[in-house]
Amino acid sequence: MNAPICPNCGGPLTRVVDVPYGWWEWDEATGSYRACNAASRVDVAPWVHAACMGELRKFHPQDPIVPASAAT
Predict the structure, then answer these.
(1) Does any domain span residue 71?
(2) 37 Cβ partners below 8 Å, 6+ apart?
(3) Is residue 51 situated within a structural domain?
(4) Is there a domain that residue 39 lies in?
(5) Considering the entire predicted model, what is its pTM?
(6) If you compute the radius of gyration of the chain from its CA atoms, what whole number of angstroms results?
(7) Mean pLDDT by 10 residues, the chain (72 residues)
(8) Which residue from 64, 46, 66 is spatially nearest to 56, judged by alpha carbons?
(9) What is the pLDDT of residue 24?
(10) Among candidates 45, 39, 71, which has minimal Cα distance to 59?
């Protein structure tokens, strides 16, 4: 069975990261790290797709996976 599809980038959710507090990315222009998060609003979604870092608000890795063919 294939992995579910990310609603943000359309890629397979083969790696999901639990990042409720965000992460730090190097900003070459300023020569320092900047704080980042995947939340689009105040109540942070804890799961993000590692490939695009888009929030997965309705996702939990322990939820049952329904094959796409059975979902229609």
Answers:
(1) no
(2) 19, 21, 22, 23, 44
(3) yes
(4) yes
(5) 0.70
(6) 14
(7) 91 88 88 84 82 89 78 56
(8) 46
(9) 87
(10) 45
